[in-house]
Structures are given as structure tokens and as C-alpha cells.
Model the fold of this input.
Amino acid sequence: MKDVESFLDNPGEKDVSVQEIFTEDMFVELEKSMTKIGWASVRSYWENDFKNRKIVSQFMKVGVYLIIV
Done:
């Protein structure tokens, strides 16, 4: 568990952009599923914000913080 905490605190070069882990193809598949159940498109958020964030420091940590608060 300490290794996970250490990684989250200091991901270094492994703190890659979200789009390197969650690819455009994966997003398209998710978007199709969301549209199929009547959810609004989030493509603008993906294109203009989420895909360019760093996966650990700008995405995971922010998400965990929002859940805790």
C-alpha cells in the first residue's frame, strides 16, 4: 500500500496524459454507450480538458479529492 501512496505522491515520468491510457477509440466506445442510454455527449470535455490532463496529478488526484470532499 505504501508503494501505491508513494507512486500517487510522486509519479514522475509515469504521469502521462489521460489519452495515453484511455485512448480515442476507448472514448468513442464509451460515447456510443452513453448516447445509447440517452446521456448527453461529453466530447467537448474530453477534447478540451480531460484527455490532455496528466493521469495521476491532474485527473486521479482531483477525482479522489472531489470524492472525499
